[in-house]
Write a structure and sequence with these properties.
Number of helices: 26
Number of strands: 39
Distance between the termini: 57 Å
Helix content: 25-40%
Oligomer: single chain
Length: 871
RNA sequence: GCGGGCGUGGCGGAAUUGGUAGACGCGCCGGAUUUAGGUUCCGGUGGCGAGAGUCGUGGGGGUUCGAGUCCCUCCGCCCGCACCA
């Protein structure tokens, strides 16, 4: 009976030292055991770790430690997503260098992560801002360029006026830059693009094979890729109405079945035909200008009402030369989707309906819902986009829309205009190419040189890396590389004449698109990967991170893996076989009377008669308890992991993080919850010490109490296995509590000396308890294992072998229902047949009473489950 | 508007996937130990009822011997995408 408390502050560093000294978590590539690669999304070195990191890395560490105990060769590495804007902002604000700021943050955060007791292979640590990393990224850029995976083109791009850089479509959220929050403008710039859209179909198809990804993420990617099947249709233009002899207008539609409901054509404001018409029509030109002004901000586009301008051009209906349609320029048509032109069918498209209602162009329904009389079917304010039968559509009448689509496609494919088919089937994707050029300093330089004579010349691979110059300043806005002559001006590698380096750097999402592959062989100086080693480790078996990367990082990585395969750096397509997206850490918010936010560390919670109140620690001033929100600096509702680890220990923080809330949901951080977790560490320690003093024995047989103990232990073991495999950590925690409760009850029930059989059962149960706690609270597990007299470390102890025969009961107690309501229990032999169970059930007083003399109509016996008597 | 998810005690959540609703934790109530306790231990804790019971998983309906779980319908909340032709 020990009265000594478990001292996490002393024990935790001690055990970490032992693990490190024995190199327990260093992973060898030549280890013959089956591999398991578990990876958490690597952090941006922002300064200090936050509770979100603690949650993320605690989850990954449980998986890593569990799989290691199960005999896998586990790869569990850590690195730093170290390029990016905040380092430049810090450099501007503090007159430091981005590298100095970044590496200092890395040093701090590495220590913090180490204090969590994570079983990481630190020998594989990488930082993306290190030339030893980005050198290989530049090499792959050149390989991709050779393989035709990269394009340089002028395109309308998203320009962030605050960060003064280009953003990818994926980085524009609600029309604003994902970092700066500034309204994004559209600009024409020459940029480097990864041709991700060439892989759209493959990226879409392969989603079906990612069965260990959350359905939600797959759906989001599916929608983002945005495949649609349709028809390109070329409309002849009435020669009398065109500005400059244009003969035709090509549109894209997914609803060719509604062609007989067409009421107008519409062009994007920057469509060539619109420009040509505007050249001769000042009013139209003014309208287009107005659209463009609106168009600079994505958000304005979303809110703008439907506006159009009649160009006076008439388009000829493909099925009727005598039928012409007005051609409008409209503000809701996008130049970069389809062909930048549409035909409008108001009856069956809400947008088109709004448009004709504004311009008085009329509506003609061509699809009639089943059960509605065609002659009375009208569309006024709400477009009908459902199924039905074709009407008002000549040779299509009576068909379903699907049949009509096929019929129209068939006819238009064979019809010709100017010697080419009028219609052409076309699959369209919403996914655009990935623009990677950024006008920033703190990123991976794009390894090309611009020569007036030779054009774009790749930097010879032997000259890599193209290192960032150190001597830069951030006192003026813009890209310091642009104004660094000695770095920028270089001879052309091809003709040796004066030339200029590319001063754009790569989007930081490029850095994170292959780091998981680099971890497989981070020491390789010659190549980005050793393909055989990469293929042996990849795909990542379990990837864990936030849902915010559902599209950006995960889609880019999937593309990059394919590109690496094409260029011989790996042999697989999909980087992440299993993906888990964890929830956020949230906390109550607090405000003083004047409305300013107060941090949890500054207040005291008082509870009186079930009412919770808060007051300021310093002054006693009352504080309002507000809603539960994501931890954020602005609302000051953060809790510093250092403080928690300092006062309670890493194990308590890890334990609480994984208790209660399912890992995919948000977890509410509460002081009471942490204290509960801390209480359990002490309880576990006492329990283990109580058992450690019991005699060691090898009993010949186990009595009922000992057997019950063994059953409880093996049941907890089996359930924990199931739940760790499915990442249901909250249930794992519950199993631990249940076993601890059972152990405590068994010890408490002993009034005299503990018999040998029970002592042995308790020791076995304690070992199992330590084993199932170990992945979550690894330091405490070591201390307990040592107290129980074992010489080996918990971290290198194989997972206990569950005895499944123990959890199979000889006798089982079945609930007995009468007409669906539980009235009794019946205990029968496990393999009792239905007839004997029925007899036993009918003999029960409670059953006879519940039946109230009604005859038994039926008895349902569900083996091992339940009995229901129907009377 | 389109797509996805969710709704269970005072709170976080379990429920073997159609089979005893509320595991486990937090909180709360009572008792014991303690000079004291923000320690530890024991007991209790969905509502109503003295009790046998009875009601109960957002509301209503259905399928079934049996529904938190399946179907229909309504209500509420959350997330993602959004003029994509």
């Amino acid at each position: 009976m020990t009265s000594e408390r478990y001292n996490a502050r002393e024990a935790e560093p001690k055990w970490r030292g032992v693990w490190e000294q024995k190199g327990l978590f260093d992973t060898r590539n030549d280890d013959p055991r089956p591999k398991y690669y578990v990876l958490e999304m690597f952090p941006y070195p922002s300064g200090r770790i936050h509770m979100g990191h603690v949650r993320n890395y605690a989850m990954g560490d449980v998986v890593a430690r569990y799989k290691r105990a199960r005999g896998f060769n586990v790869l569990h590495p850590m690195g730093w997503d170290a390029f990016g804007m905040p380092a430049e902002n810090a450099a501007m604000a503090n007159k430091t260098h981005p590298a100095a700021w970044t590496y200092a943050n890395i040093a701090t955060m590495r220590d913090q992560l180490k204090s969590m007791g994570l079983s990481l292979d630190w020998k594989r640590e990488i930082a993306t801002c290190d030339p030893s990393y980005y050198k290989h990224q530049q090499r792959m850029f050149l390989d991709f360029l050779e393989a035709g995976l990269i394009d340089r083109k002028t395109a309308k791009v998203n320009w962030d006026p605050v960060d003064r850089t280009v953003l990818a479509n994926e980085q524009v959220i609600d029309g604003r830059g994902w970092r700066s929050g500034a309204l994004v403008e559209q600009r024409e710039l020459t940029q480097w693009f990864f041709k991700i859209s060439d892989h759209a179909q493959d990226l879409l198809d392969a989603l079906d094979g990612l069965d260990r990804w959350p359905e939600k993420v797959r759906t989001m990617q599916k929608n983002w890729i945005g495949r649609s099947e349709g028809l390109k249709v070329r409309f002849a233009l009435d020669p009398a109405t065109v500005p400059g002899g244009e003969g035709e207008l090509e549109i894209y539609t997914t609803r060719p079945d509604t062609l007989f409901g067409a009421k107008f054509m519409a062009l994007a404001p920057d469509h060539p035909l619109a420009r040509a018409a505007a050249a001769k029509n000042p009013a139209l030109a003014a309208f287009i200008d107005e659209c463009k002004r609106m168009g600079t901000a994505q958000e304005a586009i979303d809110r703008a009402e439907k506006k159009g301008f009649d160009t006076g051009i008439r388009a000829v209906h493909p099925f009727d030369p005598s039928w012409t349609l007005p051609v409008y320029v409209a503000n809701f048509i996008l130049m970069d989707y389809g062909t930048g032109a549409i035909f409008g069918c108001p009856a069956h498209d809400q947008r088109d309906l709004d448009f004709v209602n504004a311009y008085g162009l009329g509506v003609r329904p061509v699809v009639c819902p089943e059960g509605t009389e065609p002659s009375t079917f009208t569309v006024t304010d709400v477009a009908y986009d459902g199924e039905g039968r074709m009407i008002n559509s000549r040779f299509l009448d009576g068909m379903t829309p699907a049949e009509a689509r096929e019929e129209v496609a068939k006819r238009l494919e064979t019809e010709t205009l100017n010697g080419r088919p009028v219609g052409e089937r076309k699959v369209n994707f919403r996914l655009r190419d990935w623009g990677i050029s950024r006008q920033r300093y703190w990123g991976c330089p794009i390894p090309v040189i611009h020569c007036d004579a030779c054009g774009v010349v790749p930097v010879p691979k032997s000259d890599l890396p193209v290192k960032l110059p150190d001597d830069v300043t951030f006192d003026v806005p813009g890209n310091p590389l642009d104004r660094h002559p000695s770095w920028r001006n270089v001879p052309c590698p091809r003709c040796a004449k004066p030339a200029r380096r590319e001063t754009d750097t790569m989007d930081t999402f490029v850095d994170s698109s292959w780091y998981f592959a680099r971890f497989t062989d981070p020491w390789n100086e010659a190549d980005p990967t050793d393909p055989a080693t990469a293929d042996a480790w990849l795909p990542v078996d379990q990837y864990i991170g936030g849902i915010e990367h559902a599209i950006l990082h995960l889609l880019y990585s999937r593309f990059f893996m394919r590109a690496m395969r094409r260029t011989g750096h790996a042999g697989i397509d999909e980087p992440f076989a299993g993906l888990f997206t964890q929830g956020m850490v949230v906390h109550e918010t607090y405000r003083t009377a004047d409305g300013s936010w107060v941090s949890p560390a500054e207040i005291r919670i008082l509870s009186e008669g079930g009412e919770r109140r808060a007051q300021l620690l310093a002054t006693g001033e009352p504080v309002t308890i507000g809603s539960i929100e994501k931890m954020s600096k602005s609302k000051r509702n953060t809790v510093d992991p250092d403080d928690i680890i300092g006062s309670y220990g890493a194990d308590t923080a890890r334990w609480f993080m994984l208790s209660d809330s399912p890992p995919e949901r948000d977890v509410i951080w509460t002081e009471e919850g942490v204290q509960g977790a801390a209480r359990f560490t002490q309880r576990m320690w006492r329990l283990v010490n109580d058992i450690a003093v019991l005699p060691r024995a090898a009993p010949a047989a186990y009595g009922p109490a000992a057997l019950a103990m063994r059953k409880a232990a093996h049941r907890a073991l089996i359930r924990t296995e199931e739940d760790v495999e499915r990442l249901r950590f909250n249930r794992c925690v519950a199993h631990v509590y249940e076993l601890a409760n059972a152990l405590q009850a068994a010890i408490g029930a002993q009034e005299t000396a503990c018999p040998d059989d029970l002592a042995a059962a308790l020791r076995e149960a304690a070992d199992i308890l330590v084993a199932i706690v170990a992945p979550i609270m690894p330091h405490l597990a070591e201390e307990c294992r040592s107290a129980l007299g074992h010489a080996t470390l918990a971290a290198e102890t194989p997972w206990p072998v569950a005895d499944r025969s123990l959890v199979v009961e000889d006798e089982i107690t079945l609930p007995v229902q009468v007409n669906g309501k539980k009235r009794a229990d019946v205990t029968v032999a496990r393999d009792a047949d239905s007839a004997s169970i029925e007899a036993a059930v009918l003999a029960l007083d409670a059953v006879r009473k519940a039946l109230e003399d009604r005859p038994v109509r039926k008895i349902i016996v569900v083996p091992q489950r339940i009995v229901n008597v129907v009377g």
